[in-house]
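To whoever is on call:

I kicked off a structure prediction for a single chain this morning and the downstream step that reads the tokens threw a length-mismatch warning. I double-checked the sequence; it's 315 residues and nothing unusual in it as far as I can see. Pasting both halves so you can look.
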Amino acid sequence: MKAPMVPIAKRVRAYCAPVDRTSETPTWFDPSVAFNFDAPPAPWIALGDVANLKRAASSKVTAMLAGAQGAVAGQFRASLEAEVAFDFLQWGKLQMALAGGSQHTNVLATNGAGSSGMGNPALPPVAVLAGSSASELVLGAGAVNAFNAGDMVACDVDYQQQTGYIGSPVAAYVRDPANVNRDRDYLRRVTFNVARVASVTATSLELAQPLVGGAPATGAQAQKVVAFADREGGSFFQEWSMLFALEPESGGQVCFYYPRMQACAPAAESVVKCDSYETSALHAVMTALPVKDPVDGEQVVCYRAYWPVATADVY
């Protein structure tokens, strides 16, 4: 056994990036380009550590028979399938959305009136002004008083009764505006453009993390978020590009890249023991969707990459 050729990992780290749902175009991961796993390049987002990573390729290979005796003359792939199961060790909006798979909701702050669950009338939004960025929301003097450091805030445009995929990035699918009661705040209820307010200046909100969807669009507004919620059911499926990286202790770096992944199991939790305590991890089961490899046009569902250490033999 050649020690430099034995990858030993400390932990498994997960990352996601948006998929263009209309064109089914993933965020590509290029192994030839340096990737800082501690500060991943946009649009990749770090999701923290995962446990119990299990990869299962269930593609079916069928033999081609020829001759009077039906001898095997070749093989072909009759189906192309892959599935991944793992546990998110951290809870957050993206982790819940990916593990739950269906539409994910920002619970907007209300004045306590109403009785329609997470769809209660929300407090009025605050206009986001020019000069805002993914890390700073300019609201203007006085308007910032609606928020405090430590608050969570959702930032997106008003819902204008559009149909199809909506959100920044895609967060829901609307077939008929009547289904969502033509709710002005609907986009902010489902958007992934959510962050924690780190500090409040005289005119703006400084965010602890940049907005997933980037700088606010023209006409965007901000609303306070008090919680996150998902649900079992519905017709929408989350879809993201996924990257799993084994943090190396020795023997080189190993990564598994899935261009298009959708959740394929109901929301569930796994019990993780820590000393005398127990915690719940978000259990995710995802299926890989095929993409066309830009190199040769072949249909693929997953890439496995290995970077040997400098002292390792090639084989």
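Update from on-call: the warning came from a stale cache, not from the record. Cleared it. Sanity check on the structure: The chain is about 5% helix and 45% strand.
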